[in-house]
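Subgroup meeting minutes
Present: P.N., E.W., G.H.
Scribe: E.W.

1. P.N. recapped why we're keeping a running log of single-chain structure predictions: easier to compare across weeks, and new members can see raw inputs and outputs side by side.
2. G.H. added today's entry (80 aa).
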Amino acid sequence: MRQQPVAIEKLTLRLDGPIAYRGEILAQLVADGLAGAGIHPSVALLSTVHLTVPAGGDETAEDLAQLIVSSILRELERSA
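Output recorded in log:
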C-alpha cells in the first residue's frame, strides 16, 4: 500500500530553560523526526495534539526532539 502524505499545518513548541534559545533548531528536528516516522494517514486525522514532555534540562536538542517525536507518535497511536 502506498503511503499518503501527512500534513502538519502548525507545530508550536513552548520551551523553558537552556534549550529555549535553540527553538528553531528543535522545531526542525521534530519535523524531520515526524517526517521520517512513517505515520500512517489513518492515524494522523487529529486536528490538535497537546503534550507535555518533561525534560531534565541536560538534554541536547536532538535528545529532546526524539522525546517529543516519541510522545507525539504514542498519542497518535492511542487516538487511532
